[in-house]
Design a protein that fits this description.
Helices cover 38% and strands 22% of the residues. It is of the alpha+beta class.
């Protein structure tokens, strides 16, 4: 009886620890939820600020003429949510769901912040393969290059403060 009880406990512990590791691996390796620091509405405010007060610059081969704003010490760009239909980053063709922060003076240099709006996960026109675990109504810091997300999140906090302060002063 003791052996059966011990086996049940061991199997339960293994199952629980495997489930926990899968969840942490997805969250800690691919993305980090920033919604507590940057709400969907704040993301939208940043987007509108860049569209209203910024200019246009191409920063990568995938998109052309991105909405751009130069904050003190770093650059920001908006990427369209439908690349195939909006390679020229035209606000009349599609919305923007990715804020790119570029700081050429840091090792990381690029920080990608993705908003997942209500209905996005089911929208087949959006050109983004959402990792498992992302939820609608959230804002995420993405990790394309497998940097340390804890460090990235700390660094992004400083950029977001500058962005929010700049927006609030206009």
């Amino acid at each position: 009886m003791k052996k059966i009880f011990g086996l049940i406990v061991l199997v339960s512990l293994c199952c629980c620890s495997d489930k926990k590791d899968d969840t942490n691996e997805t969250t800690s390796n691919e993305f980090r939820d920033l919604t507590q620091e940057l709400s969907v509405q704040e993301f939208e405010n940043i987007k509108f600020f860049i569209l209203d007060h910024g200019d246009r610059q191409t920063y990568c081969e995938r998109y052309l003429n991105n909405p751009h704003y130069s904050f003190e010490g770093f650059e920001t760009y908006l990427n369209p949510e439908t690349v195939r239909a909006n390679i020229h980053s035209d606000p009349d063709s599609s919305d923007f769901n990715l804020l790119v922060i570029h700081d050429q003076n840091t090792e990381q240099q690029y920080y990608d912040i993705l908003v997942v709006r209500q209905g996005d996960l089911e929208d087949e026109e959006i050109d983004y393969d959402y990792p498992e675990g992302m939820r609608e109504g959230k804002v995420y810091l993405l990790n394309y290059y497998e940097y340390d997300l804890d460090s990235m999140e700390l660094e992004v906090h400083g950029y977001l403060e500058i962005i929010k302060n700049t927006i609030n002063s206009h």
